[in-house]
Amino acid sequence: MRKTTTFIFALLMAAAFTFGAEAPVKKPAVKIGVILPLTGDISDAGHDTRDAMLLYVKEHPSVSSQIKLIFEDDQSIPRGAALAANKLLDYDKVDALVSFYGYGGFAVAPIAERKHILHLGLTHDRDIMKGPYSYGIYASTDTTAQLMCNTVAALDYKKVGIMVGRSQGPLKTLGFLKKYFAQKNILVYDISVLTSERDMRPIILRMKEQNCDLWITSDWPPVSDIFLRQRRELGVNTPITSVISFDGVVDKKAIEGKWYVTCKPPSEKSMDIFKSIGHEIMPISVCGYDGIGFLCDAFITGGGDPVKAKSYLDSLKSAEGMAGHYIVYPDGFFEAPSALVMYRNGKKCETSIEEIIKAKK
Question: Domains (ranges, CATH) in the chain?
Fold first, then answer.
């Protein structure tokens, strides 16, 4: 009788533990919608950035179990970015959005603000950060323009010709360049072109007539490659540089030995991480790697709560990433460090004003 009673008691206890205890509830993964130019004129940069973001997740196993990245193609146009944002929000129910360049940021930011969804723009145009839910990450237009102007002044150039693409980012860059060149009494001849323009010869000849000491470009692919090739075909040998746009040049031989302003290159140790991508990674992609990391950190620190994730981002004053030390401003802009760079033997290297002056002589 005692054995039977003990057996029944054991069964009852087992049932209590089996049916009474609550199993731990697994939180659903945070979904981040990433809108990139996977087709269109700047698709190389889009694929490069996607590879960098996926590499971040691979390098951080704790992220892959808590964060899911969902990629959408914006076709390199604003309308594509807006359509992708609405699809990600309405169908995929994402918790945050990432956009690309100014064209994408200006299309996505209003949608994110209306929905109270965190939005990170991979852009240097801070106008997209006017709302409380939008953030940005890249080199600063203001800082890169100042560095360009200081370098041009040190080289004692008196007149520059500036060619920019007719879009938000390059036009904003032009505004800062003209402002700082005026302060240094350097004359400016500027011209803007449609990003769809493919025959640059009339523009090149017009710039040649101005007898400028230096040409500066700020545009999108494939404009830079076409401009450089057609300039060479027309026999123009005026020194040329760029603010960031040389980063997108496919024919690196065309910019061999030429200095320009862009994001500070990652350290050799950091670059080792990107070797698995199989090619030289673009600065915008490095910022994409860092940006998705900052966004993931915010959600993980906040336990998946978007409100706490926003509070985390708003509390940052600085951050460390593959691009170096970021300054985080109250408007939500993560400024990557800028630098002078030059291609030497097909490899991008950081340089200095002193080295550029020496090379000029």
Answer: 30-139+267-337 (3.40.50.2300), 142-262+340-360 (3.40.50.2300)
